[in-house]
Amino acid sequence: MAGEPIISRFSEFVERRTARDFYIATGFMISTGVSLDLFGVDGVWTPRFGALASILIAFCYFNELRQNEAWWRWLRGVMDDEIQEAQEPIVDAKYAARMNKARGVPEEATRRLTSEAFLKTRPAVEAARKKYWQRFSEARHALGAQGKCIAMGALVWAFGDIPINLLNCGGLVCPV
Q: Residues 6 or more apart from 98 whose CB is under 8 A from it?
């Protein structure tokens, strides 16, 4: 039996990351480069770590399952399934109400049966909707964070040597 492709597993790993995870990873990589430069390790590390951050987050972005419209349809389908499952008692109550109506039970009793079922299932339906919108919001924030982290890494890649040279040498170019 062949194993699952590594890119597929990586995509699933990226899907579980939040915006906070991407910000932390980018901040850690950039601060590592700044630390190496400030503590005098030979080389210009800040732009290199900015490039590394930008490339890593871009790789995550392009392997992101949430980039695909099918993922959003799947998320909506999960919510619809959860709502349908939560509303099963209402369907059962409506069926029982039809049976009672056919037997000649007073309409007020059958109406009360469906009303009680509706009131019982209302919290579960609202919880399913709330869960959907929370996952929707988290996914949108994660995608936005990836874009911001790519831009931040690219800016550090392009201009990261300037503040380090100003701190270490007092000018834009350090004498060799």
A: none
Distance CA 50, CA 153 (A): 4
CA distance linking residue 147 with residue 151, whole number of Å: 6
Tokens 């869960």 -> residue = 131
Which tens digits make up the pLDDT trace of 130-160? 999 999 999 999 999 999 999 999 999 999 8
Close Cβ partners of 7 (under 8 Å, ≥ 6 residues apart): 63
Residue 169, both tokens: 């040498």
From the list 55, 72, 56, 49, the residue with the least C-alpha distance to 13 is 56
Number of Cβ within 10 Å of residue 42's Cβ equals 7
pTM for this model (two decimals): 0.76
Considering only CA atoms, give the Rg of the chain.
Answer: 28
Rounded to an integer, what distance in angstroms lies between the CA atom of residue 5 and that of residue 8?
Answer: 5
**Whether the Cβ atoms of residue 40 and residue 144 lie closer than 8 Å to each other:** no
Distance between CA atoms of residues 26 and 3, nearest Å: 31
Nearest C-alpha neighbor of 165 from the set 51, 16, 43? 43
Tell the residue number behind the tokens 């982290």, with chain if given: 149
